[in-house]
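Incident review: delayed structure delivery

Summary: a single-chain prediction request sat in the queue longer than the usual turnaround. Root cause was a stuck worker, restarted by the on-call engineer. No data loss occurred. The affected request and its eventual output are reproduced below so the record is complete for anyone auditing the incident later.

Affected input:
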Amino acid sequence: MFIVLLISLLAGYSNIKGLTVSMLNTIPTYAAQSPHMIFNLTTDSTCQGVTLSYAYDKRYNSDCENIDEKITELNLPLPFKNRGFYSLPRVKIASHFPFGLITAWSYIDTQECVAIYPKKINPFNNELNTMQASENTDFKNQLLGSDDFNQLIKHSPEMGLQRISWRHYAKTQSLMAKQFIDNESIHTVFDFNQMQGSSEQRLSKLCFLINDAYESNINFTLKLGVKAVCVDTRLDEKSRFLTMLSQFEENV
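Output delivered after worker restart:
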């Protein structure tokens, strides 16, 4: 038995000798989904039976049977599901080669963080029927102080429900927005305090609007509490503002 353990020890050391592991990047995600860490593994010869795992929860792991001189990429899911901004945990790299009698292991520590963005919620889904009944003369006169109708344009979420032409929708089932002369130069503002619902629901609606604005190339101002940031969707990285949502804590 001693001879078998000795052979296992020597074979295990030889197996992992020259193995290089480096963290490539992290992949943020939206709430209820796990973010990931991406690792590159390479070795001078051949390495077998390597496992990466979260040091304190073995349910989250990624296995690789064979590693050679070519770079092998491993994707490790992380044990976070709720919106937030998390420090990356210690990662364990281990091998039980060749007979599972011994384990060679080491730990990888990093100072990086990963974001979980709010779950995207369309802010108009639950309000559509309520707002549809509001198309009357008094409501129209509240549209940014202008009664000078210009034209109908394709509606996008950041325009707000109050600008939808419900008569046109009833006829064509197509959402079109009423553009007024005074509206044309108005800058879009996404304001946390103007959203409806709980804090998480508000952030989820802002998350939807930010994604939609980037898809439509619409510049906007994001207001979170007392902080306001002007966003140019052609120049600014979307992840920066989604990360702001993941880090936001409302002051009660």
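Verification: Residues 128-147 have pLDDT under 50 and may be disordered.
Action items: add queue-age alerting; document worker restart procedure.
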